[in-house]
Design goal:
3 domains; Glucose Oxidase, domain 1; mainly beta; OB fold (Dihydrolipoamide Acetyltransferase, E2P); 28 strands
Amino acid sequence: MAHAYTPGLKVAARVHHRLRRALPLPGDVLVEVGQRVAARDVVARALLPGPVTPLNLANQLALPPADVPSCVLKRVGDPIAEGEVLARTKGIFGLFKSEYRARTSGIIESISEVTGQVLIRGEPQPVQVLAHLPGEVTEVLPAEGAVIEAEVTLVQGIFGIGGETYGSLHVLPHDADLVPELLTDEMRGAVVAAGGRVTHAALVKAVELGISALVAGGVDDQDLKQFLGYDLGVAITGSEQVGLTLIVTEGFGNIRMAERTWQLLRSRAGCEASVNGATQIRAGVMRPEILVPLDAATGSQGPEAAAAGQLEVGRMVRIIRAPYFGVIGQVSALPQQPQVLPSGSRARVLEVSLGDGRTLTVPRANVELIEE
């Protein structure tokens, strides 16, 4: 039997989440299988080679390149401090000597008699990977990192900026836009969610207050551009250094958060949340996520999930095209035969039942699954 598949967002009250945490280069893993970790625990660390500074001593000292090695007072592998004499010429009869003092600290990496250049490698930069998710280490990746698993409440957004952060979940009313007046000093370090649109003024005030993250239904693209100072291209986000993480659950514009998503966040208010705004919308899709760890006694295990991405009667979907953009409903029928659309084209459609009793017929390409 043929099946229809469509992309989807995960909004789940309880799901078993598996998170892979790995270094960008080989290093030391600091955890063991079976170990319990907190979100801010370091699971792996490494030293990233420092930047290389080239010094053209042949030009600086007016020497032939072949004479440079004999004038350098250090050997390859020796440390050098900023301001320390690195090279000195022999002068004429011991007089009129010239010297060169290092303008940066590091390690002598190479001395070339061909180019007359000396390369200084800067101090290595420590890189560490945090657990991000409180849970149990189920697998150690030698010299890379670890895999952490836990039961969580999971909410994926449409778009986000900013990297990984943490904080207590504070939920504002569903009909409230995220405006500066709703943000207070008590929210410092918190993850603040509201059902409406987030404004530029609220983003600025959130940074001033030290709020970790904002979660909203939508954002105006001009507000986002003004906050960032530039237009975002089609690429991966998450590396923005703007003072907080922002996640929108529905899209751009004055869009209210889905009632079901807001209710789920409200049910976890006061709990610690792990948030990541990294988004990639092309190949290798990456969604921004809000993870709220659960203990064994929290909530209940939901029904067995349907196959990932598979359209079936009873599945929850979100319509992602006008004129019903953002509407959420339940698939009530999957007609097999293509139907004629108002545009005159023919396409396979589905019927979506809404909470107010209406039934909409829309092209299957115009919906995305809400995976539970």
